[in-house]
Specification:
Chain A: One of its GO terms (cellular component) is plasma membrane. Chain A: Pfam families: CRCB. The structure holds two protein chains of two kinds. Chain A is mostly helical. Chain A contains five helices and no strands. The N and C termini of chain B lie far apart (42 Å).
């Protein structure tokens, strides 16, 4: 049963990532992977809220398996991020590659902090 | 996304590999691995359903493999999140291999290969959100060293993995081609 929740969450998360990435990338022509950055940032925000809720006892196990492990895990990606960084570096845009790493990590971390904070504010004891 | 200015049109010819001169140049490879030449942003929506399904199936599979790894090798609260780190690094290495193969050996692979394996399985397998939240909860839990270690080691290992795996795959392919042309 738990496995099924992960599968379903993943089956929703991955296409959402693709659609969000395309939606963002369609709106600019710089070649910088803003789409993946947006995905990883928003996914980290959601996971921050979920984990924060879990820590206060507000989120049941099944919800975590579906939404955190399944959805957020599939929605966000390290493989696309690292490959895009590599491609930027390979095509001579080393500054952009470095910026992608710095921005992606800080944006996701900031979003995680925010999510955890929101959960604590809403459900915290 | 039209081909961005800094993405070269095809691979730069390597003087040491003149035996490749007669091969057609590969199609321009975008930075975004979700977009093969066959999946331009202008593609009609009605042909997107199979792509989305392939991504969904791959994503479910990747997610459940990741979950299986965390069940096999659980990370107690507060300890270094090795399992997710290894998952991410393995996924990035696999991405390097996959993309090198798709661009160098099988540019005419079935059009759902990349959405299923790349965007789907590997995108579903690897995770950025778990990484970010892990770093923060380690820091909040009073382990700034482990937090920083997770932060830096994951990025470094993941980038080394995708770059190294891509390079190794391309080298193996070129070695195979060189030997083939000598036959």
């Amino acid at each position: 049963m738990t496995w099924l929740l992960v599968v379903v969450g993943g089956m929703i998360g991955a296409p959402c990532r693709y659609l969000m990435d395309r939606a963002v990338q369609r709106r600019h022509s710089s070649g910088f992977p803003w789409g993946t950055l947006a995905v990883n940032m928003s996914g980290s925000l959601v996971l921050g809220v979920l984990v924060g809720a879990r820590l206060t006892g507000a989120a049941p196990e099944n919800l975590m398996v579906f939404a955190a492990t399944g959805f957020c895990g599939a929605y966000t990606t390290y493989s696309t991020f690292s490959y895009e960084t590599l491609r930027l570096a390979e095509t001579g845009a080393r500054g952009a590659a470095f910026a992608n790493v710095a921005l992606s990590v800080s944006a996701a971390l900031g979003a995680a902090v925010m999510g955890l904070g929101v959960a604590k504010a809403v459900w915290g004891g | 996304m039209s081909h961005p200015p800094h993405t070269p049109d095809g691979a730069a010819p390597d003087p040491a590999e003149s035996h490749r001169a007669n091969l057609p140049l590969p199609p321009p490879e975008p930075v975004d691995p979700d977009l093969g030449p066959e999946l331009a942003p202008s593609e009609r929506p009605e042909s997107q359903a199979p792509v989305l399904l392939a991504i969904a199936l791959g994503g479910g599979l990747g997610a459940v493999i990741r979950y299986g790894a965390t069940v096999l090798w659980p990370t107690p609260a507060g300890s270094f999140p090795w399992t997710v780190l290894v998952v991410n690094v393995v996924g990035c290495a696999a991405m390097g291999v996959l993309m090198a193969l798709l661009t160098e050996v099988w540019p005419d692979a079935p059009r759902l290969t990349r959405p299923f394996l790349g965007t789907g399985v590997l995108g579903g397998f690897t995770t950025f959100s778990t990484y970010a939240v892990d770093v923060q909860t380690l820091f909040d839990g009073g382990s700034p060293g482990r937090a920083l270690g997770t932060l830096v080691l994951t990025v470094a290992a993941a980038l080394a993995a995708v770059a190294g795996a891509s390079w190794l795959t391309r080298s193996a392919v070129r070695l195979g081609r060189a030997e083939g042309s000598l036959a």
